[in-house]
Amino acid sequence: MNALATGAGRFPAPLLGCLLSLAIVAPGVALGDVKGLSKMDFGKTKDGEAVELYTLKNGRIVVKVATYGATIVSIEAPDRDGKVDDVTLGFDTLEGYLGEHPYFGATVGRVANRIAKGKFTLDGEDYTLAVNNPPNALHGGLKGFNRVVWKARPFESPEGPAVEMTYTSPDGEEGYPGNLTVAVTFTVTADDELKIDYKATTDKATPLNLSNHTYFNLGGKTDASILDHELTLVASHYTPVDDTLIPTGEIVPVGGTPLDFTKPVAIGARIAKMTGDPGGYDHNFVLDGKPGALATVYDPRTGRVVEMKTTEPGVQFYSGNFLDGSNVGRGGVAYKKHHGMCLEAQHFPDSIHHPNFPNAVLRPGETYTQTTSYRFSTR
Ligand code: GLA
Known about the structure:
Structural class: mainly beta
Bound molecules: alpha-D-galactopyranose
Strand content: 35-45%
């Protein structure tokens, strides 16, 4: 049995059950006996592929995930007065996601973040990727994991309602080597946590860096930006970048810089010091790897808090610098600069060119795993 077959063998057992359960449910109704789980048709892609939208409810939060791009479409969470609102940027309809938008809620891969000049050499072979963020490759290419339809398997995990999404990326897709099988499982726990578990296997060595690109605005559907949100990052170092956002390779202390979020600071407090075009924060922070929340965001206006935990070595904190009002999202809100922020747990950008960064190459026989969670509460 080759490595891919072994990899695929990790997932098939429940598939039959999944097919049976899907066959007996009508769109929009609860799925079998799984508490807090329902499914709806979300429309079709331009190629006529059907897209499903799963709703996972547990504790005080409701999460919607679409099979298009394994995308988190919304996360509803209460504020300190119990008022429930969606705390992510996104669209109500599939059309919004099919159009141009900067990865709202998407699962990003095969390689999240940038690869310098869209070129790399692995095991003596040269590979060329689409330069979709000149002069670099960004977020998996022209049709990354955010633009494909994943297969869904809803199930009841011991922690709560869950949906596993799988996708097999063929050898050579977007220029990357190896047939890569990916599974991303979204679970909503009774503790108001959205947990995302990733697994992947390959039959040829490939760079791999999976992430989720949800934009948060803890104010809900609002005109207010995220500049008042207070951020804490358990990260005493970051990876400085050149003016094309490619790391220089250095790992530098945040102390004394506007990137020091080791104590809670409003995102807007020092953002003006982050000059350049478009300015703002778009940096990989090196997580200190302590137990507990590694990133915390607090919105003083609504009292909402999100805490991120991850097994990844880094997090790209992106302050929505490229949002320019051209995407009008849920509630008719035009998403302007700094309207949302991302905490993209991941390996460091352009790792393939930096041997001093944690390894981001997956080889046959190995299994890639990642767990990243976002827990919602109020103060
Ligand atoms: C990531 C990148 C940003 C930007 C957004 C999408 O967060 O680091 O530079 O490309 O995705 O707009």
